[in-house]
Write a structure and sequence with these properties.
The complex is a heterodimer. In chain A, 25% of the residues lie in helices and 34% in strands. Chain A is an alpha+beta fold. Chain B is built from 4 helices and 5 strands; from the N terminus they run H-E-E-E-E-H-H-H-E. In chain B, strands 2-3-4 form a 3-stranded antiparallel beta sheet. Chain B has a two-stranded antiparallel ribbon with strand order 1-5. The radius of gyration of chain B is 13 Å and the shape is globular. The chains are: A alpha+beta, B alpha+beta. At the A-B interface, helix 6 and helix 7 of A face strand 2 of B.
């Protein structure tokens, strides 16, 4: 079968793993992804190339900028460009550049000479979630843990505490780690399942210092640190799990006491606006709508109103008790 | 067809077509309609959602009116008026097209 990938290169496979609902193969090592032999489905293949290869082959002038993030000094930090035939070019300053084919089956990866945990952050934060979406899965902007055989998702805007909550639940021993920041959902028959992501969490060091040594060990070893977070490698669940519940976290000074209300299903916008890949259109939007509609009827959905007086430790205790009662 | 607003009778005699670029799904208390051409989502309350479902499944708007009048136990004339307004609004947002509008 003729390949739609214009960048086929030597395909020696050094790594096979599974994350974000994808079998992943690469000609370079990718730590923090569970190594597997694959389940027989066609893998997404990552091929390492020199950045000059992408410079030569990516038609920058013909591509459309579809997403960007800028730093406070207005410097570009992350860009995603799209070419109708060649796919998506993802670049982040200091983290590398990747070209993802339109079908999500192949990726060219130009990896900078930095610590592995650093360049892998772009792979886990953008490259593989995009590949998953292009292959028909639905990435949500959420963290997730596993409890009693079900996945539990936490949705909140950036900086609100979904990672910290998940970290505390794992550290307490109340749950197993599933995903940080990207929860990939898939409709299987009449059920929605959540797939484990990469085995990496970016945790506030202040929160880590609150943990006992036993609790700290449950989050795995630290593999890197930047200005904001410590990056740890908790052991994750091995398989996709049915999505049992989603908690939508909201903080604000107007909230007087912690409330957990099972009324989130009343507002479909909470789910619909939780898509991780905001720049895809057409059939991805349909997949996302389908997934949200199914989640709305198959999982329990809660609004969590968190006052400023409730810290992450206390929130985790309350959520753990709530999950136990489901 | 001129740019004038279609009459109530013209709408009732026509059929509704939900174009391929419009997708709708039911949620707990709302029907969400997605227009893929604009990327915009629209919300319909449960009654509006049911009206869209019945319109989509009926050959003519008038047929949909009969079904909904029986379901909601309301006079047919009242339901037809609601459907007329509803169709005009959905057309304005590009969420439906009318089949046979203006034909004799």
């Amino acid at each position: 079968m003729a390949s739609s990938n214009a960048f086929e290169l030597d395909r020696d496979t050094a790594f096979c793993g599974h994350a974000f609902g994808l079998d992943v193969e690469a000609d370079f090592e990718i730590a923090c992804i569970r190594q597997t032999e694959g389940d027989g489905s066609e893998p997404t293949r990552l091929t390492r190339v020199h950045s000059r290869v992408i410079d030569r082959t990516w038609p920058s002038r013909e591509a459309e900028l579809i997403f960007e993030r800028r730093l406070e000094d207005d410097q570009r930090f992350l860009t995603i460009d799209h070419h109708p035939e060649l796919g998506y070019c993802i670049w982040a300053r200091g983290f590398g550049r990747h070209v993802v084919a339109n079908d999500g089956l192949s990726v060219m990866s130009a990896i900078p000479s930095v610590a592995a945990w650093r360049w892998q952050r772009l792979v886990f934060a953008q490259v593989l979630p995009l590949a998953a979406a292009l292959r028909g899965l639905d990435p949500f902007h959420a963290s997730a843990v596993a409890s009693n055989g079900c996945a539990v998702g936490f949705v909140a805007s950036s900086g609100t505490g979904k990672t910290t909550l998940a970290a505390h639940l794992v550290a307490r021993g109340d749950a197993q780690f599933m995903a940080d920041d990207v929860m990939v959902l898939e409709q299987r028959n009449e059920q929605i399942v959540a797939h484990p992501g990469a085995m990496m969490m970016s945790v506030d060091p202040v929160e880590l210092r609150k943990l006992t040594p036993v609790a700290r060990r449950r989050l795995g070893r630290a593999i890197g640190r930047d200005e904001e977070n410590v990056h740890v490698t908790p052991e994750a669940v091995k398989e996709a799990l049915p999505l049992g519940a989603v908690y939508f976290l909201g903080r604000g000074p107007a909230v007087n006491r912690l409330e957990i209300r099972e009324d989130a299903a009343e507002d479909p916008r909470l789910l619909i606006s939780s898509s991780f890949i905001a720049y895809l259109r057409d059939h991805h939007l349909v997949t996302h709508l389908d997934t949200c509609a199914r989640v709305g009827t198959s999982a329990r959905l809660f609004n969590v109103l968190v006052p400023p007086t409730v810290d992450a430790t206390a929130l985790a205790a309350s959520i753990a008790a709530h999950i136990a009662g489901l | 067809m001129s740019g004038e607003q279609p009459t109530r009778e013209a709408i009732l005699k026509s059929g509704v077509k939900v174009p391929q670029h419009v997708v709708y799904r039911a949620f707990a208390n709302e029907m969400v309609v997605l227009n893929l051409l604009t990327g915009k989502y629209h919300g319909l309350n449960p009654t509006g959602g049911r009206m869209l479902e019945v319109l989509d499944a009926s050959a003519k708007v008038r047929d949909a009116g009969e079904i909904l009048a029986a379901e909601y136990d309301r006079p047919a004339g009242e339901i037809e008026g609601d459907l007329y307004d509803f169709c005009l609004e959905l057309m304005e947002y590009g969420l439906i097209e009318m089949n046979g509008l203006g034909e004799l």
